[in-house]
Design goal:
heterodimer; A: alpha/beta; TIM Barrel; 10 helices; 13 strands; 31% helix; globular; B: Nonspecific Lipid-transfer Protein, Chain A; 9 helices; 52% helix; 14% strand
């Protein structure tokens, strides 16, 4: 990492306390969203009021960190005013960038706030140089958050062909879907991950444990997994459920409960030109933030010193107690 | 919607836990004198509500829900009703049937670590160290509201005892560690 600029560490925060934990733990920037459907983590009890966001901007700036405001769901017809107001609010309190997914909102922000910095959300699903350059040319986006479907080699090719910075996920939830286009939750619950900002809405999730401590997870009327006593559990998402298929029963048809962990690929990602390394998990607790942020802070700094840090302790925080390098390592990880 | 339907799950889990831990502390303990414990719980809930009023904003409508908390290594249930006008935390004998919206079960140490942000609740769930049933939305809201509290709940509660704060904190920490070992 000697001759390469050290990348920014981008950390999640679902509450002001989590944000302060991330800043204190060594994050270079923190991403978070407003309460409501304008961001893609619209969970009960989570996210920031305008006042909380304003105070958080000050807290971050006073300590040399940046705040990136995620307004990264897609407005439904006739409701764009809610998203526009969120953008205006974010700019008014001095956030360092707004993470946008919707092309209309990118257009709005580039015209209304031409000097503000737009980051293209992973929810936009822009994975080709052609697509990313379109956003750069039309809306002057400064950074793209890449979908988790490219190998490190492909990231390098995209980097060499685009006019903006690259942010890549390195840890946290991973699903085998076209980001920003997943309709599985909508199919089962009528709520949209992309427009209502919530995957597997909590009011549709039910857990049932029988007398032998076998756990059944349901989303709406569908049982999506049955986990034997002592087995690790995962999130109640359809893409991590088990189903009876023609060739196999109780089969993880999409993806098994597992988390992304690119610790060992960090040097390769940085050599490929990634400017910012992103941790997933705005829905996670302060304890998770504290552990993951400090581990990756040490890892990035360690690699910069030519060391190979050990952050194997993060396995305890992974979904299903499993981790993968996903498509970053190989397109055939399953 | 409150019901006892989830209680049957809770009850089964408790019976199972007892059966598997025939020699556990829980079964050796006599029923707790709840009338002695209740003033302490009243003190805890009122001091938390006073110090962290923002907690109720995060709960929203879920502040009207009833949360049944089952410390699996103690012979009691705790029932939390975080109504901002009159928040209550009450102890019940483990054989009582309690109408509730949401149920959470784990050792006392695990529950305390989760509330005090020393452990990640998702990881505890993945590892099956906590069990939940009932109204998941209320549970998620409560988790997020508690997680936004700055500092340590145990220390806050201990501090509210004034001159007795140090011994109270030591007793809580000792009990938490003992509880963890008991079920470890």
């Amino acid at each position: 990492m000697d001759k390469v600029q050290k990348p920014e560490l981008i950390c999640p925060a679902g509450t002001p306390a989590s944000l302060r934990t991330a800043v204190d733990g060594g994050a270079d920037a923190i991403y978070c969203g407003f309460v409501g459907s304008t961001n893609a983590r619209n969970f009960p009890g989570l996210n920031f009021s305008l006042d909380e966001m304003a105070k958080s901007v000050l807290y971050a700036h006073d300590r040399g960190a940046k705040l990136l405001c995620a307004i990264n769901s897609f407005p439904t017809a006739g409701r764009t005013d809610i998203w526009k107001k969120a953008i205006d609010d974010a700019i008014s309190i001095g956030v360092d960038a707004v993470i946008i997914a919707d092309i209309g909102m990118a257009d709005y922000m580039s015209k209304k706030h031409p000097n503000a910095r737009i980051h293209l959300s992973v929810q936009a699903g822009a994975s080709s140089a052609e697509s990313i350059n379109f956003y750069c040319e039309r809306f002057d986006i400064k950074r793209v958050v890449l979908p988790r479907i490219l190998t490190v080699g492909e990231i390098k090719k995209v980097h060499d062909a685009i006019d903006c910075e690259i942010e890549a996920f390195i840890f946290g939830n991973i699903g085998m879907m076209a980001e920003g286009r997943c309709s599985l939750t909508n199919y089962v619950t009528g709520k949209s991950t992309n427009m209502d900002g919530v995957c597997s809405p909590a009011n549709f999730v039910h857990y049932e444990e029988d007398i032998d401590n076998n756990l059944t997870t349901r989303l709406g009327e569908f049982a999506i997994d049955c986990i034997a006593c002592g087995q690790s559990a995962g999130y109640p998402t359809i893409c991590k459920g088990r189903y009876n298929a023609d060739h196999r029963d109780a089969y993880y048809a999409f993806e098994e409960p597992i988390s992304l962990n690119l610790t060992h690929l960090l040097p390769d990602l940085i050599k490929a030109g990634v400017s910012a390394l992103k941790i997933e998990g705005r829905q996670r607790s302060k304890s998770y933030i504290r552990s993951v942020v400090s581990s990756f802070r040490n890892a990035i700094d360690g690699y910069a010193r030519g060391e190979t840090p050990d952050i194997s302790d993060l396995l305890a925080l992974t979904e299903g107690h499993k981790q993968t390098e996903g498509a970053f390592k190989s397109k055939i990880w399953r | 919607m409150k019901s006892n339907s989830h209680f049957s799950n809770a009850s089964f889990g408790k019976q199972k836990a007892n059966k598997n831990k025939a020699n556990s502390l829980k079964n050796l303990l006599p029923p707790l004198p709840l009338f002695v414990l209740q003033p302490l719980l009243n003190h805890i809930v009122s001091s938390v509500a006073k110090k962290h009023p923002e907690l109720f904003d995060r709960l929203g409508d879920n502040a009207n829900k009833v949360f049944l908390i089952d410390p699996s290594d103690l012979p009691l249930f705790l029932v939390l009703q975080p109504n901002p006008l009159n928040p209550t935390l009450k102890a019940y004998n483990q054989n009582e049937i309690i109408e509730h919206d949401t149920y959470i079960c784990g050792t006392f140490a695990t529950l305390m670590q989760m509330i005090d942000a020393q452990s990640d609740s998702d990881a505890l769930f993945f590892n099956r160290e906590i069990r939940v049933s009932g109204d998941s939305e209320a549970m998620v809201a409560l988790r997020n509201a508690l997680d936004d509290m700055e500092g340590s709940l145990a220390k806050d509660v201990a501090k509210s005892f004034g001159p007795l704060s140090k011994p109270v904190l030591l007793a809580m920490q000792k009990f938490s560690k003992g509880s963890g070992k008991e079920n470890g």
